[in-house]
Amino acid sequence: MKTINLSLCLLLLASPLAAIAATFHPLETIQENVQSFVKASLDPAGQYQISSAQIDPRLQLPLCSEKLEIFPQSGNIRPGRNTLGIRCPGSDNWTIYSTVVIKSFEAVLVLTKQLSRNDKINLEHFTTETRDTSTLQAGYLTDPNDVINKQATRFIPAGSVLYRFHYSEPTLVKRGERVSIQSGKPGLLITSAGVAMMDGIKGQQINVKNVSSQRVIQATVVNQGLVNVYF
Prior knowledge:
Number of strands: 14
Order of helices and strands: HHEEEEEEEEEEEEEE
Oligomer: single chain
Strand content: 35-45%
Number of helices: 2
Largest sheet: 5 strands, antiparallel
Shape: elongated
Helix content: 10-25%
Number of domains: 3
Radius of gyration: 33 Å
């Protein structure tokens, strides 16, 4: 009776399978290469969460003898869903496409108290919270100095992320309000009384009626109740 060496049989069976596997490019290696490419394309100072490249596990790609070329379909890597091409430039050249989802985390300004239109925004109105900015539209705020002492352009409920379109420069001059008109040039200024014909923010040119002459002139808003006319 013949004795069969079980270990030898398993080795003989495994050898053809290993040889076949060696002819295909490991999908895990492709995923690692994509991960490295994405990380290298992002700001090293940022906080990110990167998903693994989505690759069909049934793929059997010839083993690539050259370094894989990876390229974003949109031209650059950005937070959100990205489609990337993976190309083998070798003799058995092939190209596949995969998707990677990038979450980018940043401290943004979030309202703690609701704001009504024309409310002046102060520190008490907001706090900072870490959010996935890939889910936010462009123009979210991160610097409190951008919004302090500004004026709300609309009603904004508590819990909202603050955006640039939520605020404007405060109205310093209101229509019908008495203002001081400074005219002339630096070192030789004449002050006269006027009435604003329209609302105005700092740096804006508005129509002002000179109380003495009754002439309507254009003047630049300088501060609350103060406009300038330079010659």
